[in-house]
Amino acid sequence: MGVHDGHRDRKKAQYRRCGSEPFADHELLELLLFFAIPRVDTNPAAHALLDRFGSLQAVFTASVDELAKVPHIGPNAALLISLIPTLYRRAMVSAANSEFVLDTRARMGEYFRELLSAEPKEVMYQLCLDAKGRRRNIYRVGEGDVVEVYGPHNSVNEAARLAGTISYELTCAVSKRVPRIYMKNGVEVARELLLRA
Predict the structure, then answer these.
(1) Residue 61 in contact with residue 118, Cβ under 8 Å?
(2) What integer pLDDT is reported at residue 150 of this predicted model?
(3) How many CB atoms lie within 10 A of CB 77?
(4) Which domains does the chain have, with CATH numbers?
(5) Are 52 and 71 in contact (CB under 8 A)?
(6) Looking at residue 69, what is its pLDDT?
(7) Is 0.85 surpassed by the pTM of this model?
(8) Which of 1, 43, 92, 137 is the most exposed place for a label (fewest CB within 10 A)?
């Protein structure tokens, strides 16, 4: 009987009994990797991930391709790791069901802090609420630096219809920090920033 016999079962039992608190970061990764890397010691793979990326946050925001380049991490493990933040974001979106009221800036901030905490890059969501602040729909409308809030690909009229309001109300509600770019026949005719120092 070897020193590692029963190691996986002991670690799983410890997690069920105590939760994540007694585990170091590499031990939690090792536990997760049990499900993607069968019958092999996952400790070297967990250490390799942290050595390559530096933190759990960086591991979970890395792409599948970046993860697969790490020694001891195959395509199944890379996919499993990349699913964690995706599932978390999906859970956060579904958690804000129609009964959850986002009627204050603090609640809205809390909701988006949770939703965006697992994002590896800047993203924009369109959140449609009813008059009482209950979520009706949420759409991921863009990633990166440039996002179309309303325009040819994201109709303000359709957003208003989904939110049960009028388009004027939505356009007036866009933050003053968002620059306005006015287009005519596909050509920019004016640019305005409403937020002044």
Answers:
(1) yes
(2) 76
(3) 23
(4) 7-90 (1.10.150.20), 96-192 (no CATH)
(5) no
(6) 94
(7) no
(8) 1
- With beta carbons less than 8 A apart as the criterion, state whether 102 and 111 touch: yes
C-beta separation of 140 from 148 below 8 A: no
CA atoms within 13 A on the CB side of 66: 12
Three-state SS string over 138-161 comes to EEEEEECCCCCCCECCECHHHHHH
- Torsion angle, alpha carbons of 63, 86, 20, 4, to 10: -50
Give the number of other CB atoms < 10 A from CB of residue 123.
15
User: What count of residues does the chain have?
Assistant: 197
pLDDT value at residue 197: 43
Q: Three-class SS of residue 104?
A: coil
Q: Measured between alpha carbons, how far is 177 from 161 in angstroms, rounded to an integer?
A: 25
Q: In order along the chain (197 residues), what is the average pLDDT of each group of 10 residues?
A: 73 90 91 90 93 88 91 93 86 64 84 75 82 82 71 82 85 74 81 64
Q: Where are the beta strands (DSSP E) in 87-156?
A: 123-129, 135-143
Residues 6+ apart with CB under 8 A from 154: 126, 141, 148
CA dist., res. 88 & res. 90, Å (int): 5
Identify residue 19 by its one-letter amino acid code: G
For the chain, helix (H) and strand (E) counts, in that order, are 9, 4
